[in-house]
Write a structure and sequence with these properties.
The complex is a heterodimer.
Chain A lengths: L1 E3 H11 L4 E4 L6 H8 L5 E4 L3 H15 L3 E5 L3 H15 L4 E7 L15 H5 L5 E4 L6 H13 L5 E7 H5 L1 E3 L20 H13 L3 E5 L2 H4 L3 H11 L3 E3 L14 E4 L6 H9 L2 E5 L5 H4 L10 E6 L13 E4 L2 H12 L8 H11 L15 H11 L5 E4 L3 H9 L8 E2 L10 H11 L5 E6 L9 H7 L5 E6 L4 H10 L15 H7 L3 E5 L2 H13 L5 E6 L39
Parallel strand pairs in A: 2-3, 2-4, 4-5, 5-7, 6-7, 9-10, 9-12, 10-11, 12-13, 13-14, 15-16, 15-17, 17-18, 18-20, 19-20
Antiparallel strand pairs in A: 1-8
Chain B lengths: L1 E9 L4 H11 L6 E6 L5 E9 L2 H13 L3 E6 L5 E12 L5 H10 L3 E5 L3 E8 L1 H10 L5 E6 L3 E4 L5
Antiparallel strand pairs in B: 1-3, 1-4, 2-3, 5-7, 5-8, 5-9, 6-7
Classes of the chains: A alpha/beta, B alpha+beta.
């Protein structure tokens, strides 16, 4: 049977087990849409903006572990998608993006809706392809899914000119697997490095496990739990790692980094052995790199060899899949005795006593931290929580105690405002039986509001927790601390009536202005199983995220709420962002 | 330190821009870059000269390896190797300077490959250092145009 390129493309996607595509049609992809429209296996979600498509596919991927799939047209279709592709790339999220391209003979002629999609996306994808031959469609799709979902995952773009989707050939034999000589991701770490790591672990007096997003992406949560339990070492997690080890676990000392807990950062600073598990020593984690872990030997488990030694020197590199490396370590440590670290735990418990996440409540004002704590209580900690970017993101990370992986979905690396709402939609499609909350702010939510319309069309009921303080809060906080309270352009003087806005999109809108209304409103919202509810919660405009490592400082130089409320720092480090 | 990095990669459209894009995006320095197909028409060989401390060179090698099209990366500087570069230089020649120029060409085993009434076109092959020295020896004279290929190299062992 003869098929056109579009039909082969759609069949190839079915062969990969794709069940959802997030997309937006346009001239260059009309043949593909025609082929999609003629089948029922793949459900297409028509977003309202291509950036929304990529974030929704990203949320779908993070919630399900399967690659998210996006289909956009040429020109503005793909340029709109770039922010979402870069977001997925920074957080190593598997994604396949198919973009239409102008017909092959027109490429390079500044044709209508032509951009160099491969060129524009090159630095924010794991790999990309321009299909030049209809016979390459099925193989390219196979390669794209293979690359996106193995090794260190990431987005892969396939640019396909319109004429290739129109041309016809005899239906190809689809292959099941692909082997690429130039792409052979490592699985197991070198045995001699495992031996070295074990020696270091056994002799450690002040050890700490520092676990990152790799434990979530690499589905290594069970191994991480077993490894931590086996050693009895304190464990801290990055923003991206939350949930891999349960927040309620006794050995958990909180998130580390710029807004991590006092005990996590002090533990890192004084440690003599840091075991980094699927984490990449990002600048929000290390703070001032010259003051980072001054006395520690470092063991680094990472699937990506280029992560090793990129930011900090490493004593024992363990390159491989986190899951497999942890299994090897667990095996090698069996029956071995670690050093007594009770003195270390006593010190850590003293730091815990500082209670760095305590905050002052105030009569007549809703504290944002209270909102997140109440959200945790009402959902029993079992919801999937997506977030946008800013103060609310940090409060969600600090006060919603994630006990399972793939429950916390946020743009950690790129810090993309607008991510939360479409990501929540994608997560709900991946996990329809689970409550999904989008914690956002009045700044971020306005960047992707239009997806409220998509959410009505496809009935993806999400609870939007809008922490509305009128300010771009994180910007305002930095201006308060580091710019002598010159609040340049961080206040939004005109905001929409979010209740009416939600209603006009066909959802439920509720404004919450008094603390006593907060819990009943949340309970009522989550009772509405089939409706999206927009809770516009008016919160304290002056609240800051604490604790905080100011830029340029080290882990042992944190600002604490109350104690350092008005602390101003010197200029040193301001250039470090 | 100066390193010569040899990269074997899939002979695909856009492979060159992936490599050059990587260097600019990560702020690595390229002193020269040459690329051409190999005896296997599906593979290209790229030779990059870069300068950096050990940490930077290690990152360059790792980041190159991370590119999906790259099959193999070798830091030739870390092993016995041969490097060569080709220079084409056009020089102003007149009766006062001709003898001096001829002497320098001879000293550097250069070849005069084209002659006009008042110019020489000279070819010199060798290590970059030799080519720099040859150009240096012409300093006092009038160089009209310089074109260099950049370095290419191979390791001397059978298996590189």
């Amino acid at each position: 049977m003869k098929l056109n390129g579009a039909q082969i493309l759609v069949q190839s996607l079915k062969n990969e087990g794709v069940d959802h595509i997030f997309g937006y049609p346009g001239g260059a992809v009309l043949h593909i849409y025609d082929a999609l429209g003629a089948q029922d296996d793949i459900k297409h979600i028509l977003v309202r903006h291509e950036q929304g498509a990529t974030h929704a596919a990203d949320g779908y991927a993070r919630a399900s572990g399967k690659p998210g799939v996006v289909l956009v047209t040429s020109g503005p279709g793909i340029t709109n998608a770039v922010t979402g592709i870069a977001t997925a790339h920074m957080d190593s999220i598997p994604m396949v993006v198919i973009s239409g391209q102008v017909p092959s003979p027109l490429i390079g002629n500044d044709a209508f809706q032509e951009v160099d999609a491969v060129g524009i996306t090159r630095s924010c994808v794991k790999h990309n392809f321009l299909i030049k031959d209809i016979n390459q469609i099925s193989l390219t799709i196979k390669k794209a899914f293979h690359i996106a979902s193995t090794g260190r995952p990431g987005p892969v773009l396939i640019d396909i000119p319109k004429d290739i989707t129109i041309a016809q050939i005899q239906e190809p034999n689809y292959i099941d697997t692909v082997d690429m000589r130039s792409y052979q991701p490592v699985v197991d770490a070198e045995p001699k490095q495992i031996i070295k790591a074990v020696e270091l672990i056994l002799s450690a007096k002040q050890p700490v496990i520092y676990a990152g997003g790799g434990c979530v992406i690499g589905n290594a949560d069970q191994e991480l739990r077993e490894f931590t339990r086996q050693l009895g070492f304190p464990i801290t997690q990055t923003l991206m790692g939350l949930g891999a080890y349960p927040a309620k676990g006794e050995l958990f000392i909180g998130m580390l980094g710029m807004h991590g807990t006092y005990e996590a950062n002090m533990t890192m600073h004084d440690s003599d052995c840091v075991i980094a598990v699927g984490a990449r020593f990002d600048d929000r984690i290390t703070a001032n790199i010259s003051k980072f872990c001054p006395t520690a030997k470092i063991i680094h488990i990472d699937i990506d060899p280029s992560s090793i030694g990129k930011n900090v020197a490493v004593n024992v590199p363990l390159v491989g899949e986190v899951k497999s490396v942890l299994k090897d370590l667990i095996q090698a440590l069996k029956g071995k005795k670690t050093t007594d670290i009770s003195a270390w735990w006593a010190q850590i418990n003293e730091w815990r006593g500082v209670d760095s996440l305590a905050y002052q409540t105030k009569e007549g004002v809703i504290k944002p931290q209270t909102v997140i704590e109440t959200l945790y209580e009402v959902t029993k900690g079992e919801a999937i929580v997506t977030s946008d970017v800013g103060q609310h993101q940090m409060w969600a990370a600090q006060y919603y105690h994630f006990n399972e992986p793939r429950r916390w979905i946020n743009s950690g690396g790129l810090g993309t405002m607008g991510f939360g709402l479409p990501a929540a939609m994608g997560a709900k499609l991946a996990k329809p039986d689970r409550d999904v909350a989008c914690v956002t702010g009045e700044g971020s939510i306005q960047m992707m509001l239009q997806e409220l319309s998509t959410m009505l069309q496809y009935n993806t009921p999400v609870k939007i927790i809008n922490l509305n303080n009128g300010y771009l809060g994180m910007v305002r906080q930095w201006q308060e601390f580091f710019y002598e309270k010159r609040y340049a352009m961080s206040y939004m003087e005109a905001l929409p009536d979010f209740v009416k806005l939600a209603e006009s999109y066909g959802h439920i809108g509720v404004k919450v202005e008094r603390e006593e209304d907060l819990k009943p409103a949340l309970i009522e919202a989550f009772k509405q199983k089939d409706r999206t509810v927009f809770l516009d919660i008016i919160t304290d405009p002056n609240e800051n995220v604490f604790p905080m490592i100011p830029s340029g400082a080290g882990h042992n130089e944190m600002l604490l709420a109350g104690r350092d409320e008005m602390a101003s720092t010197n200029d040193e480090g301001l250039d470090q962002v | 330190m100066r390193h010569i990095i040899s990269v074997l990669l899939e002979n695909e459209a856009g492979a060159l821009s992936r490599v050059s894009g990587l260097f600019s995006a990560r702020g690595f320095n390229i002193e020269s870059l040459t690329v051409a197909a190999t005896n296997d028409e599906t593979l290209s060989r790229m030779t990059i000269v870069s300068v950096g401390d050990d940490g930077i060179i290690e990152q360059i090698v790792k980041q190159l390896n991370k590119l999906i099209d790259v099959v193999k990366v070798t830091d030739l500087t870390s092993m016995e190797h041969i490097e060569r570069e080709l220079l084409l230089v056009k020089i102003d020649v007149n009766p006062d300077t001709q003898a001096d120029i001829d002497r320098q060409i001879d000293k550097f085993s250069g070849k005069i490959i084209d002659v006009s009434e008042d110019t020489y076109l000279v070819e010199v092959v060798g290590q970059s250092k030799k080519i720099n020295e040859f150009l240096g020896s012409l300093d006092a004279l009038k160089i009209l145009e310089v074109s260099r290929t950049g370095v290419t190299g191979v390791c001397q062992k059978r298996e590189g």
